[in-house]
Structures are given as structure tokens and as C-alpha cells.
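User: Hey, my collaborator sent me this sequence without any context and asked if I could get a structure. I don't really work with proteins. Can you help?
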Amino acid sequence: MKFSNINLMIMSLTITAIFSGCGGESVAQENRNKTALGEALFTSKELSLNTTMSCATCHDIDKGMIDPRVDSMTLGASRGDNGTSLGDRNAPTASYAAFAPSFHFDAGEGLFIGGQFLDGRATDLKAQAKGPFLNPVEMNMPNEASVVARAKAVDTLSTQLTSIYGSDIFENDERAYDAIADSIAMFEKSTLFSPFDAKIDRVYEGSTSFTALEKQGQQLFEGKAMCVACHPVDGHHPLMTDYSYDNLGVPINSALRALNGIRDTDNGLGKEVNDAQLNGAFKVSTLRNIAVTGPYMHNGVFKNLKTVVHFYNTRDIGGINPETGAIWEASEVPLTVNHVELGDLKLSDQEEDALVAFMKTFTDKKLEHLIP
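Assistant: No problem. I've predicted the 3D structure and written it out in C-alpha cell form, which is a compact way to encode the shape of the chain:
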């Protein structure tokens, strides 16, 4: 395990304390106000260039905080505000994102840990919230001042911003933009994003139990399949990620690249930290809600969870991609692929099914109806 569960528990307690009135009722009320403002900002389409999308467009609150639109589901990446631009990465779930530690290098482990976005380029949740507004293939706003001006023009947003951050908040665009991101981050720390009420939570609490197939999956997950090496499931409310980075040997999403025209190799973390040994490494994502947050991998190349498990199981031994009927394609970044913890797990088809059954228990209660 690359990131101790004790640290994750501390983070959990810290985030819980934010909403428990810790530090006085006035602080708690201010945080509630920020959360309400954050929700309004998160769902406001006024903050995109053509007023066609909001944060919630790619992180739908009722769909596991992913982009449920047709292009995202079929191609693996999201259309931008102009309706034509197309990114190169799958929009990850925003569920439980608040628990990721700030991006840092752990000298003891010799690993980069935490951060936001799939390549860790945002240090924390607030830094992440600032990115999509200005991304030309997302909300496409020209600069911070333009986002601030849009927020100021919406009476409800303007009133809440001045009430919480001061009557002079709009006198400085940088400070106002920071306030917008701060409120969005506070909203993402709410229990709406992290309810911890999946079946696995209820099993650990003693109110229900796994089926025989789910129990077998748990045993495989913690043993033969080695999933816990990066997705620990111990502790009262496991987050199912160690927040490290890894090159899983994912092939190019050729269908997506054919439409977005991108030809450059996506080196992920390696590009961000300027280290070729980390080329092709992307953040180990939480497995919470994994059964309902496809498509999968950093580029959305796989559509089904069973496909992902089969890829982990047979990538290095000539396995067949069940979605294409062809042998697995080569990794986009072959030199740094992890061949130790995946690629030839020697799992039977029935054992793959058991793993999928177990991972379905990671689904928030309100999203269980979405499980395929």
C-alpha cells in the first residue's frame, strides 16, 4: 500500500469536521453558505463562453459525477462548450475527489501522490476548480476576468459572493476568481459527493452481507488479483485508491483520436513533472462508483467494467478485447508499463465475474439503480 490508511482516515475526519461546526457556529454557517454558493456555481451554465455547459455537465450529480452525454459514453471524452471541440481524456468522476491529498512527492515511498486531474497538474481541489473554465476544449472562457464578470452579472451569484467574501470582492479579479473556486471546492467536500453508503460500507457496518459471488470477488481482490496493491479496501470507509500514479499499458483510443485530431503521445504525469520514467502514468482513481462511471481508463477506451478486468488479467498473454474481438493493442507508452501487478493474473472467466460483482458493491446507494 503506497498511501497509509491512517492518513486517509485523518483526511476523512478533517473534511467531516468542516461540516460539524468545528471552530464555532459562525464558521460552520459560513461553510454552509459557501457550499450553497458552490452548488450554484457548479451548476451555472452562465460561466461558459456560449452558456451551454457547467461543471455539472461533465460531472452530473445524478449520474455518479461523470459526463452521461452520448459522445462521452461512446467516444470516451467530452464535447466542449462550442459543441464541436473534443478532448482527449475521459472526464473522471468527481465523487470522493475531496479526499485526495495535495499533490506532493513522498520521499519515503519514492512516489508522487495525490493532486487533481488525471495527471496531477492541479495541487488541490480549489486549483482544479479553476481549470475547466479556461480550458479551450471545455468551458472556453478567455481569462479569469471574464469568468468573474459573468458571475457578477448573475444577481444570485453576485449577492452570495459579496455576502460571503466581502462587498469589495469584485474589485480584484484574481481574488474573486479564487473565491469562485473556493466555493466550488467546498461544495465538492459535501456529503452529496461522498455519502459513504455503498453496500461495502453497509457490510463493514454489519447491516448486510456479501453474496457468495461478491465474497469470492473480495477474496480475489485482496489476494490473487492484487487489486489492493493500489486500491486498498481496509478501514471503515475505504477510498479504494492510494493516490499514486501508474502506467497500466492502456492502448490509444483510436476512435477518439480519429475525431479530435490529436497525434501527440499523452505522457500524463511524466510530462507534468518532466520525468520520462513516469511517462504514461496516470492517477490511480478511486473505485467508488466504478460500476456506474464508465467509460474507463484515462482515455475512455474501454466501455465495460468486465473489459477492464479482462485487460488487467490478460494484457500480456495475447488476450482478446471482448469489445473489439481483436487482441489487445499495444500501450501508447510501452517503455514504462507496469508488468509486475497486472497483465497476467491467471484469473478464470468466472473469477473475473466475481471481481466485477464485488466492485459493484462500491456503488453509492442512490446510484445502485444505474448498475448494469
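In plain terms: The chain is about 40% helix and 5% strand. You can pass these C-alpha cells on to your collaborator as they are.
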